[in-house]
Amino acid sequence: MPLRIIYFQINEAFAAQTLACAKDLNLDINKLNVDGGAIALGHPLGASGSRITGHLVYELRRRKAKLGIGSACIGGGQGIAVMVEIL
């Protein structure tokens, strides 16, 4: 059974990068960075992962949703992601 991911948080290092990820992954942009990304909310040095994860958990609880994914790019073409499930 496929997972039903409700919200996505992508580290918005650059607006074009976020749009390219949304297009390549066929994400619903209405479920992506629903309250803004790093451009709107900030890109705290060394704490972007914490901001993304915290905001994802907040949104899932606020909207009574169950599953979400947060991701961030890392220099050198790497990346990291976390899936959060509210029980």
Automatic annotation (TrEMBL):
InterPro entries named in the record: Thiolase-like, Thiolase_AS, Thiolase_C, Thiolase_CS
GO terms assigned for molecular function: acetyl-CoA C-acetyltransferase activity
BP GO terms, sorted: fatty acid beta-oxidation
Claim: Transferase is one of the keywords in the record: yes
A Pfam family hit: Thiolase_C
Gene Ontology, cellular component aspect: mitochondrion
The organism's place on the tree of life at top rank: Eukaryota
Keywords tagged on the record: Acyltransferase, Transferase
Domain Thiolase C-terminal positions: 7-85
UniProt cross-references to SUPFAM superfamilies, sorted A to Z: Thiolase-like (SSF53901)
Signal sequence range: none
PANTHER family reported for this sequence: ACETYL-COA ACETYLTRANSFERASE, CYTOSOLIC, ACETYL-COA C-ACYLTRANSFERASE
Record-stated family: Belongs to the thiolase-like superfamily. Thiolase family.
Name of the protein in its database record: Thiolase C-terminal domain-containing protein
Annotated organism of origin: Rhamnusium bicolor
